[in-house]
Amino acid sequence: MTRIDEEAVDWAARVADRDFTDWDGFTTWLEADAARSARYDAAVLALAGAERTVAQLPAGTSVVATASQKPGPARPHAGRWLGAAAAAAVIGAIGVTAWQERAKPYAVETRAGEQRVLALADGSSVILAGGSRVMLDRADQRRAIVEAGEALFRVRHDAARPFRVDAGGLALTDIGTVFDVKRAGALTRVAVSEGAVLVDPDGAALRLDAGETVVAEGDRLVEGRVAVSDVGAWHEGRLAYDGAPLGEVAADLSRQLGRRVRVSPAVATRQFQGTLDLPSLRSDPATLGALLDVRVHVDASGWTLEPRE
């Protein structure tokens, strides 16, 4: 089976999921090569027939594809199809078990100012901050990808099936854990409040225990410490910082408050150490100016942090 056929089968399976949302990604894949539309149509029909075939098989039956059972060119007339032999080839190439247990990814997103608690089947949970996005997998709920924003993981430990998280290419494995993962531009920050996390298990294999953090930018890992009570404090309405640039603070406030907070270049790199109380700021943005030593300009489009005159 060619690479295009493999990709077509994957997209056919994903699009068939009633919770599929990645239409932009699907459209981009289709438009990148004129041949993909025909291969996708063929894969949809082949997998539909193959799924019916697999459902009718006795338990324990395996399907094997012969060398001659390879997907051929899609027929040019309406209703293109691959036929029974090609359907068997698709199942044989993927494997019955792999077909039944194939990855079933789905995305969960929050709007700015929103929080959402995701209860997983294994007893773990993920709390999403505002303006965040994670990818989960119905076929393996012990895996997650943090694509944007911030997420607090409360993991039920299982030594036989570690919970794995990817964030910006940084691989994390739980060791019985509550930990926070934040994507801030090119940076990924991990902080642990309970148990431990193994960072980059196939490389640096850095262990983070409660009260420890790491910031990753590319291949560079910088370790640090944090008060355990500050890990995931955004969930309780607090943002705690230890020397964060105001540009990062403004981005966090935008996500957590649900309103646009910009920062003037003149103060964007200024560092802030302290704690911000989100409910107080919602009702009185002037409080933010005193805490950050800036002027807060408020207009219809949001807040702008500017130097004091």
Automatic annotation (TrEMBL):
According to the record, the segments passing through the membrane are none
Which parts of the sequence belong to the FecR protein domain? 108-197
**Superkingdom of this protein's organism:** Bacteria
Q: Which one Pfam family would you cite for this protein? A: FecR
Name the UniProt record assigns to this protein = FecR domain-containing protein
Record organism: Sphingomonas citri
| Lineage of the species this protein comes from | Bacteria, Pseudomonadati, Pseudomonadota, Alphaproteobacteria, Sphingomonadales
